[in-house]
Write a structure and sequence with these properties.
Chain A is mainly alpha-helical and about 325 residues long. Chain A has 12 helices and 4 strands. Chain A starts with a helix and ends in a 21-residue tail after the last helix. Classes of the chains: A mainly alpha (about 325), B alpha/beta (about 325). Chain B: Keywords: Cell membrane, Lipoprotein, Membrane, Signal.
């Protein structure tokens, strides 16, 4: 394998990891605050559709991005209403939202565009273009580092850089700010937060809203960054892989980056090499596709350290009377 | 009031008898969905043509999960629709079972295979390898790098059948041509994952491919998009997809599902069943698409060669090996 091939596989890894990473960080905020969110998939799908639809009608990808985020936050608000205000079951609410998104996007798309549940193809300013970082072309000649900078680091759409910048930002917000401390506390011991006079409901709603915004970025990246339009069910299970990555990362931002890059790399390798011939035996592509889930099960079974979810996760908070 | 109820009763009775005498056909799409710009949409177009040319009406349904297949079949059969046309190989088995319970109703399936065909079932198959052979020739002639790509949807024998014909056609033009073949996945989501389609196309482009044939349903939308973005040629499938990116889509391998559906619906209750029907180049069941969008891409030389091969396949002097014959392909390793 030469350097070019390695760079191409890693380049593909970055593109495939970005939606996973955004969705994974979204889940991280929500679950750290004690709200399980199965609905990452549905929110991404919702945002993918609305970002593509609005980007197409206005011709501006930024308005599309905004619409996608608003749509995704709206779903988050429903999830919050059901599971925080009315103390419903968080898993059921999440599953319901996934179904809602899967059906509603196609229905609305058919009503608006009459193209059978998809948006028309986006062109020009309605898509996120690849950004060429400064000096990318002039540095290409430098051995090893040149191609890495010019081909691997440069040449992605802005949302990719935003996604990667979100990792240190998430870490800083969660572990270095007062808001982050309270957010984590609300996922571990909400009664303590309540005793201190801080609103549990408010904090949880804030966390769920951040989750919606990040899922919105992920969905918009799929529809307007990677693709040029919305196709039904285009998230294709990425929300669930992001959940697996979240458990794999043990609910930590930097681990989440590693987990998402790993899962992205596995996908990229599976796409590049259908069957990997290791001489003695052949690794089938199906095994590579299943590997993220297998790894998550291994982690959950406790073979590689223990994955302990936030203690109050999944529990609606009931104030003592 | 009495008059009103009487009228209503008469209308209802009329409607019922009309339903019994002149049964409407019904159409059940596969999981890819009615508007996949490809296979199922071709079926829909055939049904629409039936409706506009004969003035008849038909009922159709898009199923959302495997479990709905039997439900939809039984609902249509109970309601007296005849014939019931279904698309996709996956419904064939359950259709064979349901058909036994409704001997008066005729069932038609496109793409399916059954070991024993019940007397009221018609299975329509296409010689996709023949059509794919022709577009494979065109791909190899249009390629400047000598490397071409094939992207399949779900990894099933049918899709390998497409890929196999394509590879044979390409090798016939240029024995040294390199063919990169990828499948999107092994689950039904592989029909609807344009992001993965794009990544596969990018990966094939980086390996030198400059013409890519996508036989992947909705995933193909991503393949064609990336090919257009990266300024290489692509080949569409099933329906004519040349218009999706004018001047960037070399051609489309046509599979005239629309003709099959139209014929079946027009025949109505007189449809001949209890057999397999195979549509190939000779019956114009498969072919390649030519229109204004791709006219500048297809040279005279290309057309002559492809049309000559088409004639040879029809009169039997050229044999395109089918993947089904012994579950392997002489020209391509999957």
């Amino acid at each position: 394998m030469d350097l070019d091939t390695i760079i191409q596989v890693l380049d593909s890894t970055i593109r495939l990891s970005t939606p996973l990473l955004l969705a994974c960080l979204a889940g991280l905020f929500s679950e750290r605050a004690g709200i399980f969110d199965i609905g990452l998939e549905g929110k991404m799908l919702f945002s993918a559709f609305f970002s593509a639809a609005i980007a197409f009608t206005t011709g501006s990808v930024w308005l599309g991005l905004l619409a996608g985020m608003v749509a995704s936050i709206a779903l988050s608000a429903i999830h919050g209403l059901a599971s925080i205000t009315f103390r419903g079951n968080q898993l059921i609410s999440g599953v319901a939202l996934n179904f809602l998104a899967s059906g509603l996007t196609v229905l609305v798309a058919q009503d608006w565009f009459r193209q059978g549940g998809r948006t028309p193809t986006l062109e020009g300013g309605a898509r996120f273009e690849a950004i060429t970082l400064p000096f990318a072309e002039s540095l290409r000649g430098v051995p090893v580092l040149g191609p890495i900078y010019a081909d691997l680091i440069s040449g992605h759409s802005i949302l990719v850089y935003v996604a990667f910048a979100m990792v240190p930002l998430t870490w800083w917000v969660l572990f270095r700010t007062r808001f982050g401390l309270r957010l984590r506390a609300v996922g571990e011991a909400p009664e303590a937060v309540d005793t201190a006079g801080v609103s549990v409901v408010g904090l949880r709603f804030a966390a769920v809203a951040i989750c919606g915004a990040l899922c919105g970025l992920a969905g918009a990246y799929l529809a307007t960054g990677l693709q040029a339009g919305f196709v039904k069910e285009m998230t294709a299970g990425r929300g669930y892989i992001a959940l697996a990555a979240l458990i794999f990362a043990k609910w930590r931002p930097w681990y989440a980056l590693v987990a998402c890059l790993l899962f992205g790399l596995l996908q990229a390798i599976a796409l590049r090499y259908q069957n990997i011939d290791l001489g003695a035996f052949v690794v089938p592509v199906q095994f590579m596709d299943a590997l993220p889930y297998i790894l998550t099960v291994v982690i959950l079974a406790g073979f590689v350290g223990k994955a302990i979810p936030p203690r109050a996760g999944g529990e609606p908070y009931v104030k003592e009377r | 009031m009495t008059f009103f109820t009487k009228t209503l009763g008469t209308v209802a009775a009329l409607a019922l008898t009309a339903g019994a005498v002149l049964a409407d056909p019904a159409l059940i799409y596969d999981l890819g969905g009615k508007f996949d710009k490809s296979f199922n949409e071709a079926a829909f177009n055939g049904a629409e043509r039936f409706a506009s040319e004969t003035g008849g009406t038909y009922k159709d349904i898009e199923i959302q999960s495997e479990a709905q297949r039997e439900q939809a079949l039984r609902r249509f059969a109970e309601a007296g629709f005849n014939p019931i046309v279904t698309t996709g190989f996956a419904i064939a088995n359950i259709m064979g079972e349901v058909a036994k319970d409704y001997p008066e109703t005729k069932f038609v399936n496109v793409d399916g295979w059954l070991p024993e065909v019940p007397p009221n079932v018609l299975l329509i198959n296409f010689q996709e390898h023949q059509g794919s052979y022709l577009v494979g020739m065109m791909a190899a002639m249009a390629s400047k790098s000598g490397t071409i790509g094939f992207i399949g949807g779900m990894d099933i024998p049918l899709i390998r059948h497409f890929g196999c014909g394509y590879a044979q056609g390409a090798k016939a033009v240029n024995p040294d041509v390199k063919i990169i073949a990828n499948m999107t996945g092994t689950t039904p989501t592989a029909w609807n994952d344009p992001v993965k389609g794009s990544e596969l196309a990018k990966s094939q482009i980086s390996q030198g491919a400059d013409v890519i044939y996508a036989a992947a349903g909705g995933t193909g939308v991503g393949v064609l998009q990336t090919a257009a973005d990266e300024n290489i040629l692509s080949i569409g499938v099933d329906s004519n997809q040349n218009h999706l990116h004018p001047g960037k889509v070399l051609t489309s391998m046509l599979k005239r599902v629309d003709v099959a559906v139209f014929e079946a619906m027009s025949a109505g209750a007189d449809l001949e069943t209890g057999k397999f029907m195979t549509l190939g180049l000779a019956e114009d069941g498969v072919g390649y698409a030519m229109d204004d969008n791709n006219a500048p891409l297809v040279s005279e030389e290309m057309k002559t060669a492809v049309d000559a091969a088409r004639q040879q396949i029809i009169d039997g002097s050229l044999n395109v090996v089918s993947y089904y014959e012994n579950d392997s392909c002489p020209a391509l390793q999957f």
